[in-house]
Amino acid sequence: MEARSAAAGTERPAAPPAGPPPVVVCSRYHEAVELVGRRWSGAILFSLIDGPRYFSDVAAAVPGVSDRLLSQRLRELESEGLIERAVHEGSPARVSYRLAAPGEALVPALQALYDWAQDWRSDA
Predict the structure, then answer these.
(1) What are the per-10-residue average pLDDT scores of the chain (124 residues)?
(2) CA–CA distances in Å: residue 83 to residues 5, 34, 44, 58
């Protein structure tokens, strides 16, 4: 017979089965997830997978992001060493962005997340 809460008249949830201790999330992992998971950051990184892009191309690849927020995220990703910025001479000067080596190392994870998202939302 299942235990019932006398006050609420509802069933008590069963205790979870005993198993291995929970994995402790290290600070480096948490910092990385917060950086890549920050609004628009993952999409910006994904837009650079195929090579360098001008600011306007990144903006077009990530619909909905404002120029101000895109600039902010690009600066953050650059300061963390995930992307590199290049200024191209001309009038007006143009700026392009590309994945730096640490950003390139993220490509398999970004691609895996993209593939997972396609399966996850296949019904949408």
Answers:
(1) 55 84 89 93 97 97 96 97 96 95 97 94 78
(2) 56, 16, 10, 13
